[in-house]
Predict the structure.
Amino acid sequence: MILLHHLDSFTSADTFNSTQVFVLLCLTVGGYWIFGSGTKLVVTASDEQVVKPVVSVYPAASRAHLEGRSSLLCVASAMFPPLVRFSWKRRKEDQEQWLPAEGEQLELRESGRTAAILLVDGNVTSTYKYRCSVQHEGGTVEAPTEQEVQPLPDPAPPKVSSGPSQYQVKLLCVLYTVLIVKSLVYCCGLSLLRIL
């Protein structure tokens, strides 16, 4: 994302803050600039300043809802321009080196903030710490805190059902016997009422 103050001087090879401007298609038709699909261009007044985002990271949801996966939430807010790119790093609890994190990432954008949710596979055998960083026009900003993801506990073995107990069978027999006796008494009562 490049912030341009003067559109008149823009060319597809301009470089700002070590970031190359890339435009798939840019045409001038009747004095108007037309950009290809997917191009994001923010043109502002020359007095507007780039504001770095405020970055926070949180655990996003309990594991019970995610079928054995953990999730982490990274929020970037209070920035200008509003376009950012999220990246995640992780390290084992006993190591120093941060490596790129693997997992599915979902992004949510709304006015004033952008959030990314990282879904992490819960089938890990070690505890990992995760860190979120945000790449922005004003530079890269890392979250001041880390989130820890622990391995899932071993699932309990399934309970094997051995069928109904003897107590349950006896109780069921008594219940059926009472119901049969009740039906016989009811039928006999109706027969006596007809005779009288």
